[in-house]
Amino acid sequence: MPKIIGLTGGIGSGKSRVVEVFTALGVPCYIADQAAKKIMVDNATVKQQIIDLFGEKAYDQNGLNRAYIGELVFKAPQKLAALNAIVHPAVAQDFSLWVSQQDHPYVIKEVAILFETGGYKAVDQSLLITAPKEVRLQRAMKRDQSTKEEVLARMNNQWEDEQRIPLASHVIENLVWKDTEKEIKRLHKYFLSLA
């Protein structure tokens, strides 16, 4: 069984770019957010539970009506908790199956809210990607074509780095990309040595 490295970081920290480097190094990477999106459309049980929670408008001809659900959950944290209670167990099951099929010494599980959900307790090591809030804000606004208010609303549903750092096995501050890459390669060797 491969070692599981949980990778996380706030919006705009550069998690996806870090995952790309691990992928290029031949490490199998599981992106929980992508898996969740797929499960919410393809898993009939999950789909029905989401309709029961949000109504028929939860899905449209394009699949999951993300804008509609997004609007509801950001206004009502209890709706977000209810959605997570449907989706997280399904993703956990999907991940278990996926990890059992990998033959690399370690895998990366990229999760936006690894610490917030207590998911860090279920991984062998955790890697936190950080960057100053202002930098993250600018990156996320540029990437998603979002307003400052929209990005801040999403940030408010995540912990601050100060809350995450004490729980993380490893921290990379992602400011200068060549330094970040060097750190990833160093950690890659270290993670291989754990197996």
Give the helix/strand class.
alpha/beta
- The whole-number mean of residue pLDDT values reads 95
Strand content: 5-15%
In order across it, which strands form the biggest sheet? 2-5-1-6-7
Along the chain, the helix and strand elements come as: EHEHHEEHHEEHHHEH
Biggest sheet overview: 5 strands, parallel
Word description of this protein:
This protein is an alpha/beta fold. 55% of the residues lie in helices and 15% in strands. It has helices spanning 15-24, 32-42, 44-54, 66-75, 77-100, 133-144, 148-155, 161-164, 177-194; strands at residues 3-9, 29-31, 59-60, 63-64, 106-110, 125-130, 170-173. The chain has a five-stranded parallel sheet with strand order 2-5-1-6-7, sandwiched between helices. Strand 3 and strand 4 form a beta hairpin. The longest helix is centred in the middle third of the chain and has 24 residues, at 77-100. It is globular and about 50 Å long.
Summarize the structure.
This protein has 195 residues and is an alpha/beta fold. It has nine helices and seven strands; from the N terminus they run E-H-E-H-H-E-E-H-H-E-E-H-H-H-E-H.
Fold topology:
Layout: E1 3-9, H1 15-24, E2 29-31, H2 32-42, H3 44-54, E3 59-60, E4 63-64, H4 66-75, H5 77-100, E5 106-110, E6 125-130, H6 133-144, H7 148-155, H8 161-164, E7 170-173, H9 177-194
Parallel strand pairs: 1-5, 1-6, 2-5, 6-7
Antiparallel strand pairs: 3-4
Helix pairs in contact: 2-3, 2-5, 3-5, 4-5, 6-7
